[in-house]
């Protein structure tokens, strides 16, 4: 009994995993259909005249009719993330029958993912009826049938009725397909033109950004060069001041006042470790040169202070 229970639980677990995989790959199929429509839409203007059907067979592995359906699906739902989550191509095919401009409202009011294909078809039909499309098409179809019936009455005995019925049905299908193709072609061209326009605008913006970046980089290089030259000039001037021999002597009061002024200005320098780590090499070199000048001056001053006066001693023999 326990073995059967374990086996049953194992089968349920495996089946649950397979269900998740099935749902995932089904969504991939629907999204792949829309993406294929995008590729076909972008490729068609680039394919040479008369080679489109062969190009589709060799690269997409489908007929021209299916290629047109995929392109129509991309033109109408390519930017709608909700459609990519539907997961069933059949439902997307049904959505193509929606009147233009009603897609967003229909998707917001209906949980297409949770509906069956039949339910989606019925909901689309209701939208078309509300828009007057179904009724108008039914009137057209009825008128065509009535016209065909009158023709059959006039030509009675020439062609069997069942053949005429088949011909009428085929003609109706052809008329519907021609209207659908005309609509798809119009929407496809408009969407492609918009995509091409946006691409041109993006390319222009990218070029402008690149030019602005080059101007900013050039200005930064000029600023760094001028700042480096200024620091070098300040260092040279300070070094010259330190090496210049004064003509008068330095009194204690003057020296004390100068030291207090120097410390008051430069007292922050021993605490600037973080600032020095963020400086450029040229700035740090300028600080280093100035500091070496001060250190050299201090060493020379220390040497002068350590001078010992020696008196001349006369030695008598």
Q: How does this structure look, described?
A:
It is a single chain. The chain is mostly helical and 317 residues long. It has helices at 2-43, 52-59, 64-77, 81-84, 89-95, 103-109, 117-130, 133-154, 161-243, 252-266, 273-277, 281-305. The protein folds into three domains: 1-130, no CATH class; 132-221; 245-302. It is built from twelve helices and no strands. The longest helix has 83 residues, at 161-243.
Would you summarize the structure shown here?
The chain is mainly alpha-helical and 317 residues long. The mean pLDDT is 77.
What is the helix fraction of residues, given as a range?
over 70%
Kindly, what is the distance between the CA atoms of the first and last residues, rounded to a whole number of angstroms? Answer: 135 Å
**Could you tell me the radius of gyration in angstroms?**
44 Å
Overall 3D shape: elongated
Order of helices and strands: HHHHHHHHHHHH
Q: What's the multimeric state?
A: single chain
Largest sheet: none
Helix and strand content put the structural class at mainly alpha
- Structural domains: how many: 3
Average pLDDT value? 77
Number of helices: 12
Beta-strand percentage?
A: under 5%
Keywords:
single chain; 317 residues; mainly alpha; 3 domains; 0% strand
Write the layout of secondary structure elements.
Layout: H1 2-43, H2 52-59, H3 64-77, H4 81-84, H5 89-95, H6 103-109, H7 117-130, H8 133-154, H9 161-243, H10 252-266, H11 273-277, H12 281-305
């Amino acid at each position: 009994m326990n073995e059967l229970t374990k086996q049953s639980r194992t089968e349920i677990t495996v089946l649950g995993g397979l269900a998740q995989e099935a749902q995932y790959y089904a969504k991939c199929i629907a999204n792949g259909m829309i993406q294929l429509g995008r590729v076909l839409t972008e490729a068609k203007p680039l394919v040479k005249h008369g080679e489109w059907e062969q190009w589709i067979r060799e690269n997409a592995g489908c007929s021209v009719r299916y290629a047109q359906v995929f392109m129509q699906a991309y033109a109408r739902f390519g930017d709608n993330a909700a459609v990519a989550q539907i997961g069933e191509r059949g439902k997307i095919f049904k959505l193509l029958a929606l009147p233009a401009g009603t897609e967003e409202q229909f998707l917001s009011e209906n949980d297409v993912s949770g509906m069956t294909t039949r339910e989606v078809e019925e909901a689309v039909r209701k939208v078309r009826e509300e828009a007057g499309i179904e009724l108008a098409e039914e009137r057209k179809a009825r008128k065509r049938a009535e016209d065909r019936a009158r023709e059959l009455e006039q030509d009675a005995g020439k062609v069997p009725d069942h053949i005429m019925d088949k011909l009428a049905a085929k003609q109706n299908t052809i008329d519907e397909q021609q209207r659908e193709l005309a609509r798809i072609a119009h929407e496809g061209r408009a969407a492609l033109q918009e995509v091409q326009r946006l691409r041109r605008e993006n390319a222009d913006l990218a070029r402008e950004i690149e030019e602005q970046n080059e101007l900013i980089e050039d200005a930064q290089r000029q600023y760094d060069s001028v700042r480096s030259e200024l620091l070098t000039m300040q260092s040279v001037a300070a070094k010259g001041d330190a090496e210049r021999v004064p003509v008068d002597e330095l009194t204690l009061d003057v020296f004390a006042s100068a030291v207090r002024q120097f410390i008051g200005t430069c007292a922050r320098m021993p605490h600037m470790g973080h600032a020095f780590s963020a400086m450029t090499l040229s700035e740090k070199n300028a600080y280093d040169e100035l500091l070496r000048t001060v250190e050299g001056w201090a060493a020379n001053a220390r040497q002068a202070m350590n001078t010992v006066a020696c008196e001349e001693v006369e030695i008598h023999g």
